[in-house]
Amino acid sequence: MNQVIECVPNFSEGRDLNIIRQITQEIESVEGVKLLNVDPGKATNRTVVTFVGAPGAVIEAAFRAIQKAAELIDMSKHTGEHPRMGATDVCPLIPISGISMEETADCARILAARVGQDLGIPVYLYEAAQPNKDRNNLSVIRAGEYEGFFKKIKLPEWKPDFGPAEYSVRSGATVIGARDFLVAYNINLNTTSTRRANSIAFDVREAGRVKREGNPITGKIVTDAKGNPVNTPGTLKAVKAMGWYIEEYGITQISMNLTNIKITPVHIAFDEVCKKASERGIRVTGSELVGLIPLHAMLDAGKYFLQKQQRSVGVSEKELIKIAVKSMGLEELGPFKPEERIIEYLLRDPSAGKLIGMSLAEFADETASESPAPGGGSISAYMGALGISLGTMVANLSSHKAGWDERWEEFSNWAAKGQSQKDQLLKLVDEDTNAFNKIMNAFALPKATEAEKKNRSESIQAATRYATEIPFRVMEIAFASMEIIKAMAETGNPNSVTDAGVGALCARSAVMGAFLNVKINAAGLADKTFASDIISKGKKIEENTQRLEAEILTLVNSKI
């Protein structure tokens, strides 16, 4: 697996688009790096940039961006709502795939050393890259901000990890580290009071607020045996939060960093702030994401809000995202474009899903052309997808049928399972054609020498085996989908029973069509044991499918 890390530098400039553009051009100048998102904020006067790539390329791109920011941004003239201490205020590296947190922390230290030595910028390590746990928290490092760091940097305990112990008037200092994926998330309030916004932030953030005797604002601070202030923790774990006023919009926000969305997901943070705001007579009007978010976080949010309405969660990915956006008001301050804000959408291969991205007419035209692919395998997978789509439709219709309110969750579970099978089969529409192309590419390999002949033969066999496994997978999923289709014919909305019947016909055709492809490809395999085994399994699936189809059609005809 290729090693991929993400870098999310925050630059202390959010108003001059020319400066921002020059910095991002430095990032894009590095081969092997993909710029995913640029998110400037006028009120915060800060831009969050996101890019990904191989470790070496990301280190180089980050260095060039930090260097350019130091040239163009004068911190002595900087003002903004967000805490900051340097032109490149913070530069975290995040492991995405094929690389551990420890390896990512090593990358952060390599970058930090280079910035300190070559650019003469004081650098502090944080999170996983910082071995000293007394100074690995970003907010602790940044305390005092730019204005206070001229004195702070002279303290022995705040000597930089790299670079000079002299504070640059122009570029300030930089914090570089390695951390888990963090979601920056702001929740909008219908108040202009920063104090009230901060009160809500203290209610929910993990650190909470300082405990006081009597009056929670003016009372004496409670201390422990060592004289340290005692905190009353907030209600949300893995959440950092503060309140601020955004002049651009004339509102206050709860600005949050969700440091572990497995512990506190976005939708839970949103609902908890709604609750705490309401207790103080304040209303949440919407929210905004800063930077990117993982797909699962949006899907989980969509399901959460549907479940609160007692509605089926077995809807499409697109619909789940739409529900999440509407429920959390993510478009109050500007449009939310999933293709630009969801990290998986930005990373996906543009060539993937070529067939399922076509219109019905285009797909039919492509199939009818003189090209041998897409062929029967892709069509079988698509028939299977249509079959389970009908079963899922019946489940969704049943989940909100009048008089069946107490059964919504039962049908929601069926629909969610059906959506998963539909998505798998749709991917196999393209994958069957890809498998065919792998065989063609293997046959096109050179065969002049003995070594080339051997490589060509092995490649043909590997491709042929793959082209056998893909339609077999179609058989397995299409057959499994008949469980849902039969359940809908038996217990689903009676007005849609014929839809379940058509679904069964599609699933049967998908299984039998895919089996034809399994048999013809298996015939070309040198591994006869594997070929015999997969054909034997295929026969059982085909027989069971035909049996189930007959049972479902009998059910359907009895209800017509």
Describe the model.
The structure is a single chain. The chain is an alpha+beta fold and 560 residues long. The chain has three domains: 4-178, Formiminotransferase, N-terminal subdomain (Formiminotransferase-cyclodeaminase, Chain B, domain 1, 2-Layer Sandwich), CATH 3.30.990.10; 183-347, Alpha-Beta Plaits (2-Layer Sandwich); 360-559, Up-down Bundle (Four Helix Bundle (Hemerythrin (Met), subunit A)), CATH 1.20.120. Helices cover 52% and strands 14% of the residues. The chain is built from 17 helices and 13 strands. Strands 1, 2, 3, 4, 5, 6 and 7 form a seven-stranded mixed β-sheet that branches. The protein has a four-stranded antiparallel β-sheet with strand order 11-12-8-13. Helix 13 (376-399) packs antiparallel against helix 16 and helix 14 (408-443) packs antiparallel against helix 15. The radius of gyration is 29 Å and the shape is globular.
Would you kindly provide a brief summary of this structure?
The protein is of the alpha+beta class and 560 residues long. The protein has 17 helices and 13 strands.
- The fraction of residues assigned to DSSP E strands is 5-15%
CATH superfamily of the largest domain: Formiminotetrahydrofolate cyclodeaminase monomer, up-and-down helical bundle
User: Helix proportion of residues, in percent?
Assistant: 40-55%
Give the second-level CATH assignment, the architecture of the largest domain: Up-down Bundle
Structural class: alpha+beta
Can you tell me the CATH class of the largest domain?
Answer: Mainly Alpha
User: Low-confidence parts lasting 5 or more residues at pLDDT below 50?
Assistant: none
Question: Oligomer, anyone?
Answer: single chain
**Domain module count:** 3
Mean pLDDT, to the nearest integer, reads 94
> What's the CATH topology label of the largest domain?
Four Helix Bundle (Hemerythrin (Met), subunit A)
Question: What distance separates the N and C termini?
Answer: 53 Å
CA radius of gyration: 29 Å
Biggest sheet details = 7 strands, mixed
